[in-house]
């Protein structure tokens, strides 16, 4: 038997790694154009470049950075906006404000809701469903922590008195507007809402069924946001907005936008420092200055001035309102510290 002869086919050559050195230097993208993110849909981003709607994807170099409605971003690629075109988001501009929430009060994972908004509009029905002050308090804390102002929009005033909630929140510096249905189903009080939103980017947030989408449709008739009804048994609404979307409000100053968000049933504050929680309760913060040094402001804190503030109320109505505020604040503190069942629902 003759010995086997070998050729190059019998030699397995492992591909080399190449000689080009890796670098951390990224492209400068000096030709990028600036856009405004109006919506996010299953990994695709709807961006407005001047007045042209552009569909974009996120570049790999952004990693897990979240891109949310309200973001100002830089895009490269096809920004023509024609059907079938796709641009790439390569940079997120520094944000003026960032509204965040967590799943609960001990969850370390923050979820960015919107960016660069000036005002949080907490939409609350006065009836059907009943107002939930604990959720309002949570929203106020999150907004102040984000550097945003707060507007409380009370809807369905044709069904219940708006006085109690006005008296509860107006002294704390929260602006309040009220809307109601007229005989012809028109929304009354809309001019007051428009005046409060003029020239700003506002985020609308609220429980399902409070009339948030109805308010958005009144402000932006072309929006055609789906509206739902309140369940007669549970008193809760059905989710009708499935994703956040920024809408330009017609007939108002340039820069007037509303960002409609899905109905919320929880709003965790794990990302908010305890000192910031007190700052959001401005009426309590003023009284807390009289507390002894190191006071925790909890129910078992000795000589806490907040308890004296409730005890010195001029009448029972004021005492009840103060007690409710203090209870809400202490519940937030306990939930934030993990000493209470961390349930961010009202």
Short description:
The chain is an alpha/beta fold.
- Percent of residues in β-strands: 15-25%
CATH architecture of the largest domain: 3-Layer(aba) Sandwich
For the largest sheet, list the strands in their spatial order: 10-9-8-13-15-14
- CATH names the topology of the largest domain as Rossmann fold
Number of helices: 8
Total beta-strand segments: 15
Order of helices and strands: EEEEEEEEHEHEEEHEHEEHHHH
Stretches with pLDDT under 50, minimum 5 residues:
230-241, 341-346
Radius of gyration: 26 Å
How is the biggest beta sheet arranged? 6 strands, mixed
CATH superfamily of the largest domain: P-loop containing nucleotide triphosphate hydrolases
Total number of distinct structural domains:
3
Gross morphology is globular
The CATH class of the largest domain, by name, is Alpha Beta
User: For the residues shown, what is the average pLDDT?
Assistant: 86
Broad structural category: alpha/beta
Helix content: 10-25%
Cα separation of the termini:
90 Å
Walk me through this protein's architecture.
The chain is α/β, with parallel strands linked by helices. The protein folds into three domains: 33-92, Nucleic acid-binding proteins (OB fold (Dihydrolipoamide Acetyltransferase, E2P)); 98-260, Rossmann fold (3-Layer(aba) Sandwich); 274-337, no CATH class. The chain is 23% helix and 23% strand. The chain is built from eight helices and 15 strands. Strand 14 and strand 15 form a beta hairpin. The longest helix has 22 residues, at 316-337. The protein is globular, with a radius of gyration of 26 Å. The N and C termini lie far apart (90 Å).
